[in-house]
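Mods, move this if it's the wrong board.
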Amino acid sequence: MTGESNIATLKNTNNELYMVPGDACVIAAPWVQGACPTAITTDAQGDLLPLPMGWQSLGELDQKAGIKITPDKKTNDILGYGSIVPRGSVNTAMSVTAEFSIQEWTEIGAALYWDVDKASVTVDPTTGEWQIAKSATPEVNYYSLIIVGQDITSGQGYRFPYWIFPKAMVTKQSAQSLSMSEALLMPVTFTAYTDDTLGEFLITGAGGPGVQATNTAAGFVEGS
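Not the wrong board. Structure tokens:
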């Protein structure tokens, strides 16, 4: 056996197992403890769930900014006196953030960007002018968030990678930039927190008919 064929055997490449999200969406709702859906498909055909009651889409997101989901973990080394190699490590903190730029100016998008309750968005009944009056009073506004991508590479049906934040909060708003050549965006970063009823701060996976077709090859076996 040649070295080349040996590497190919070990690598066991499968071109059906990478994903390219050619489209994506983010839906959100005010957080209600324990109420966030925990799956995105509804039946044996792998169809996507309809928009849940009380949820809204954030519309089109900025292509250039993309959607970035970032896990972060901090550890602390356990060092024995007299050795420079740690004996082990313990986890001291863990977080997950989602970052994207909202392109469409909707009520929920503006409320999220300025981190206000939707009740703080008012519309003048005569002129139709809407506004947000941001006060100096501290606010804590939690939302549930579901991010769904749509893979464009599978020849065996749609695959939908997803990230569910049962409880999340806007922890950063990036600058709005007025430009003659680009859309005026609302860039936000969400941080996930634990929903005490569900017991998780993040649920992630993939669904759809294309996932059903490739699960065995990918090692995802029912009940594992």
